[in-house]
Amino acid sequence: MKDVYLFSGFLGSGKTSMLTNVIKQLKERNLKPAVIMNELGKLPFDSQTVEEDIPLKEMLEGCICCSGSEKTEAQIQTLLLNEDFDVLIIETTGAAHPVEALDAVYSPLFADQLNIKGIVTVADSKLWLERESLTPQVRSLFLEQIRHAHLLLANKMDLLSESEQAKVIFEMQGINSHAFILQTTNGQVSYKLLENLQATSRISKDDIHSAKIGKHLHLSSLLIEFNKSYTQQQIEDWIKTLPSTVYRIKGYIPVEGVKNPMLFQYAYGLVQWLPEYIKMPAKVVLIGENVDEVKVIDE
Ligand SMILES: Nc1nc2c(ncn2[C@@H]2O[C@H](COP(=O)(O)OP(=O)(O)OP(=O)(O)O)[C@@H](O)[C@H]2O)c(=O)[nH]1
């Protein structure tokens, strides 16, 4: 039997950071991971965090629950037939309801080959404290992702004071009393905790059914290509003009005086720039609600 984990969490919460960290630990234990990544948006940026020797299936454009369980089934089937792996990690899009995504992996086709260990949710703790500022739909999805976790990472703890950290844990425990809640920074979780999960039995059919009713959030993505360089300040000034319903931006931006386009990440008011040693295409994906109305820089 191969262990299957579903990584859930809203856009930009730290799923990819956790994935990178878990893959490293699996390798140290001589366990072979396979990954299904479900990226909302047109460019598979996150897949670059997965090294080339790891079997990776990507579902671009849409999320596991929207594209239908058949597609996920087909991907798992292909992995099972063609690849040698011990552990399967499915990173859902930040816009997916975790139970719906889990529903997609329960297939009689491979029931005897997969041991579904459960949902690991990464929550942005800073965003948790500011959740009143979210639209009701996003807030409800955020709560659902926390409520259905079997293991919950209260991530981005480095951004909070001690009393805020305690408040987050207390409040999250109130929403989900059965999950083990771990305080993390950069999604650093010990693989032992994942291994100890015995979650499959706790997911009832009723849960899955109720999750399907009206809980889906319709996000869309916008691809922006850059034909010239900007200063970091110009980009950050542009970011400040964006509506609060833009949740996530990531990709590569050409910066004046810097050789290669820099890796740019934005999530909930926080911007991150990292130098890139190879020349990546100068494009970003922006994810949010009503992104068609977003003013693109220089337009
Ligand atoms: N300060 C801080 N930043 C973090 C932490 N974890 C992740 N980040 C940053 O948050 C941003 C998003 O992290 P990712 O790991 O890409 O998040 P994700 O959930 O995979 O994002 P999507 O794939 O867009 O849903 C990046 O800029 C990370 O460097 C943390 O614990 N503290």
From TrEMBL:
Keywords assigned: Chaperone, Hydrolase, Nucleotide-binding
Domain of life: Bacteria
CDD domains the UniProt entry points to: CobW-like
InterPro entries in the cross-refs: CobW-likC_sf, CobW-like_C, CobW/HypB/UreG_nucleotide-bd, P-loop_NTPase, Zinc-reg_GTPase_activator
Ranges for domain CobW/HypB/UreG nucleotide-binding: 4-181
Known catalytic reactions: GTP + H2O = GDP + phosphate + H(+)
CobW C-terminal domain ranges (all copies): 220-296
SUPFAM superfamilies named among the record's database cross-references: Hypothetical protein YjiA, C-terminal domain (SSF90002), P-loop containing nucleoside triphosphate hydrolases (SSF52540)
Annotated GO CC locations: cytoplasm
Gene Ontology MF term list: hydrolase activity; nucleotide binding
Pfam families registered for this protein in UniProt: cobW, CobW_C
Family listed: Belongs to the SIMIBI class G3E GTPase family. ZNG1 subfamily.
Full protein name: Cobalamin biosynthesis protein
